[in-house]
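User: Okay, second chain of the day. Same drill as before: sequence in, structure tokens out.
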Amino acid sequence: MSAYFLEIFAGTARISAAAADLGLNVAPPIEIANSIAFDVTNKAVEKVLAAAIVAKRFWAIWFAPPCKFWSRARSTGNEKDIAKKTVVYVTLRLLKACIASGTYFAIENPWGSALWKFPAMERFLKDYTKIRIVFCAFGTPYQKATALYGNLPSLGSLARPCTCAAPHEHLQGSVRIIVDGSAKHFWKTELAGRYPPNFARAVARLLRDACPSTGNFHRFHDLLRQLGEACAVSVAMPALHCPRSYVCEWDGARMYYANSSRRRRQQFIRNRRRPMKRVSVKRLSKIRAEAAASKWKKAKRSASTWRAKCPCGIVQYFVKGKPEENKQAKPCRGCGKQRRVATTR
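Assistant: Same drill. Structure tokens below.
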């Protein structure tokens, strides 16, 4: 019997798509947005998945519970408490089924997620090492520190430090994106929930190295039939696609809200692209000394003089403490005309 890789709370299912591209046995990704037959909080769906896990139909399972329930970036009201508790308890029951059947598992959520502090989850994961990854190491303009737990072999190889020189874009505010001809607002945190393609491929390579030899590439259509019968609906295999290259989810947005960090990052990148002249250490010291002297002279002049601007555009400075002299008409050193100019600080 062939064993399969399963992704629960799959979202865009990029890990499943990347694993399928490498020829691995891939089960239908479980994501409620694709069909109600993929609603894990449904008791019938949970029963089908638990029975398949106990029967060892899966050799590895990737869990990514919705971070909107647990993220500190956006607050959730009390009405969300029941939903998030349901999600975490279903996840724990499936994780315990993985342990009982000897199935590899990995669970992912943001580094500061409150999921890791949930008492039952904290007790379950106390024997596993918390692995930190940052998505900027996989090509994103934002950092988004993420935590991984699990017993998947070589899971720690995904940990990579941040080596970015440019400032990161903050996951704050929202963007307006044109979808199907109409403008819609999305939170940046929601769009950043999609895995970067480079990260999905790194996980797929890790799965390929750990995968047992269980037959040729084949889609798990039996699970589709069982889930469809449990929910009394017809279910089709979701389309799997992992982009070849990374494009930021909000690059084509029409409007940005709270995007000062984006402007800083873009300005830094533009400045880095400009050609830079090589100068000697002696010349560099001279330039710095001249800049410091000019800054000191400007500060001294602004403290002891008035600033006046002629209509021709020439700026003149007059000494403070001589109001009668300053009120007289003076020749402009630019145009030479005698004119009385209004003085300002």
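Residues 4-167+187-249 form a domain with the Rossmann fold fold (CATH 3.40.50).

User: Thanks, on to the next one.
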